[in-house]
Write a structure and sequence with these properties.
The chain is of the alpha+beta class and 105 residues long. It has one domain (2-77): Alpha-Beta Plaits, CATH 3.30.70. The protein is 30% helix and 16% strand. It has two helices and five strands. The protein has helices spanning 10-22, 58-76, and strands at residues 2-6, 27-30, 49-52, 80-81, 88-89. Strands 1-3-2 form a three-stranded antiparallel beta sheet, with helices on one face. The longest helix has 19 residues, at 58-76. It is elongated, with a radius of gyration of 16 Å. The structure holds zinc ion. Residues 82, 84-85, 87, 96, 98-99, 101 line the site of zinc ion (ZN).
C-alpha cells in the first residue's frame, strides 16, 4: 500500500479514486472520516488520502493523477457565480446548486 494523493477537498480525493479505478488500479480512500480528530492531528494529517494497493501501480498512479489534475484545472476552469443569487458554483455544475439558476454563457 502506497499513498499517492492527499487533498483537503474530499471531492478531489474521491475523483482521484474514481479515476484510478477506471484505469483498473486498485485503490482505496483512507482518513475520509478523520475530520473529528482536529486538535490532536494537524490539518494536513487529517486530510483524506488515496492509497494504491499494489506498490507497482504507484508510479503510474502518480503520473495519471498529475495528468488528471492538469486536465481538471484546464478544462473545468474556475467556479462560476450565479447571476440570480450570487452563489459560487463548481464549474462541473450546469445549474446553480442553490437556486437552480442557469450557468451564464
Ligand atoms: Zn443561484
Amino acid at each position: 500500500m502506497i499513498k499517492v494523493y492527499s487533498n483537503s477537498d474530499r471531492f478531489m480525493v474521491w475523483n482521484v479514486h474514481a479515476a484510478l479505478e477506471a484505469r483498473g488500479i486498485e485503490c482505496s480512500v483512507q482518513n475520509c472520516f478523520a475530520a473529528g480528530g482536529v486538535g490532536e492531528l494537524s490539518p494536513f494529517e487529517s486530510w483524506p488520502e488515496v492509497w494504491v494497493h499494489d506498490n507497482e501501480d504507484a508510479a503510474i498512479a502518480k503520473r495519471l493523477i498529475s495528468e488528471w489534475q492538469e486536465g481538471f484545472y484546464k478544462q473545468e476552469g474556475k467556479e462560476w457565480v450565479c447571476a440570480n443569487c450570487k452563489e459560487e458554483n463548481h464549474s462541473s455544475f450546469d445549474v446553480c446548486w442553490k437556486c437552480g439558476g442557469e450557468k451564464p454563457y
